[in-house]
Design a protein that fits this description.
By secondary structure, the chain is α/β, with parallel strands linked by helices. The chain has a single domain, classed as HUPs (Rossmann fold, 3-Layer(aba) Sandwich). Helices cover about 40% and strands about 15% of the residues. The protein has 7 helices and 5 strands, in the order ααβαβαβαβαβα. The protein has a 5-stranded parallel beta sheet, sandwiched between helices. Helix 4 links the parallel strand 2 and strand 3. The N and C termini lie far apart (about 80 Å).
């Protein structure tokens, strides 16, 4: 207060922090910045680019999930669950290659077992191969135990156990069907590590326009999800 009894504005004491308006205090936690946003033309370009990437990805999925890369192995491992037509293709691939032994794998059959004495897909595939004249002395049947999950990985363990008695085998080509190829190779690599080189032969890959049929859609999307699970989550 001044000498004449009036309030001097310059002598006012500052308000305590507790008296600051809450909204002003909240605004002090933020600051303004310049943000660039697309124009209409920019949004159109981004939409077209995103559509092109999505289409390219959809068209490329069959090839990504169904690689065929041999490592020049002398042993061909065949997944026993594949169809009769694919199994005939496997026998032809064996004859056309430099293989000297075929190993068929497979887990327990939980349906239609009354149609055959075979209890596993490995035994069933062996029966079909013998029926078609495949040489018995070049065929090795490796059934897996009865399981409900991680079936492909379990078959790799059967092959790995057999390989312990085969001192001259350091590479395997695995024959499978459809979009199962990339996941099969990954699981074999996880199982064998550096002990053995793994090649993959993917027979009858899905069509490029796989989304137009229910079978193709289920196969590609299902195998993509299963591959991502094996790659990102599954641990042996």
């Amino acid at each position: 207060m001044s000498q004449d009894g009036t309030d001097d504005p310059n002598s006012l004491e500052p308000l305590p922090s507790s008296s600051i308006i809450p909204g002003v205090a909240l605004l002090s936690c933020f600051k303004q910045r310049l943000v660039w946003v697309p124009t209409l033309r920019g949004w159109i370009v981004l939409l077209l680019a995103g559509s092109a990437i999505a289409i390219a990805t959809m068209l490329g999925l069959p090839g990504f999930l169904s690689p065929s890369e041999s490592v020049g192995a002398r042993v061909l491992v065949v997944e026993g669950w594949i169809s009769d037509e694919a199994l005939k293709d496997a026998a032809k691939h064996f004859r056309d290659g430099l293989y000297d032994r075929m190993v068929v794998t497979g887990w327990w059959i939980n349906h239609a077992s009354y149609m055959s004495q075979a209890r596993t897909f490995a035994e069933l595939a062996g029966e079909r191969l013998r029926r078609d004249g495949f040489p018995e002395d070049k065929l090795i049947v490796l059934p897996s135990p009865e399981i409900i999950r991680d079936r492909t990985f379990t078959t790799t363990l059967a092959v790995k156990e057999w390989l312990k008695s085969q001192k001259d085998v350091h590479a395997l080509d695995v024959f499978t069907s459809g979009a199962h190829g990339r996941r099969t190779r990954l699981l074999y690599q996880l199982s064998f590590g550096d002990e053995c080189r793994i090649g993959i032969i993917s027979n009858r890959a899905p069509e490029r326009n796989w989304w137009k049929t229910s079978d193709g859609f289920r196969e590609v999307t299902g195998e993509l999800i299963a591959y991502l699970y094996a790659r990102l989550i599954f641990r042996p």
